[in-house]
Amino acid sequence: MRISRRKLCSAGTAITLSAVSGCLGGSDERADEPNDDWTWSGTIPVTTVVQHHDPSCGCCSAYADYLDDHGFAVELEETADPETVKRDLAVPQDAWSCHTIEFGDYLVEGHVPLEAIERLFEEEPAVRGIAAPGMSKYSPGMGPRGDDPLSIVAFEEGGDVFEYVEV
């Protein structure tokens, strides 16, 4: 079977656009829709956080909006190499997501709901941080709450990762 160059280029463009569309926001408009379902009225003894992420990641910007909407000052540290930041901050690879947040003395990896972060600060476990590994579809910045609970893991300085809470 013979494919024309025009069809091949069109197919390649479509595949490329599909592959990168999940994390590209590109506009200055706030991405409110992924956060509409994620209300929270608790307290956390931190007012300013530092979020490390790739500058082209739209879902990272939506998560920063989520934190901002709930009263946190979010300092954005954009990096073209988020993996190096994760390694430098000792985030185990099994916990990796698209952004890393310095939240007081803890690290928060990925799209973790504030309910889980509040619990972390209430319980003060001897962990380095908590994470929603991967790209959790029904999480703040990624879409409305789903029907199933979101699993959050904790991770230790030495790299151990274990179930922490479901929200």
TrEMBL record:
Superkingdom of origin: Archaea
PROSITE patterns: PROKAR_LIPOPROTEIN
Organism: Natribaculum luteum
Protein name: DUF411 domain-containing protein
Any single Pfam family the record assigns to this protein: DUF411
